[in-house]
Amino acid sequence: MEILTSRGVPAGAVGLTLGHYHRELRDFPRAARFLALGERVLSAPGDAARR
Length: 51
Hints:
Largest sheet: none
Strand content: under 5%
Distance between the termini: 6 Å
Shape: globular
Structural class: mainly alpha
């Protein structure tokens, strides 16, 4: 996450993007699972630097 924020990407944009692609790729279960995992990692409580 630090890499993206250092390049000017807002932290909230990552979660929104993952959610969008997760919904759009519902016909591709492997991709959907991967994106859902990314959403869970971003929404998990804890130190943002570990993500």
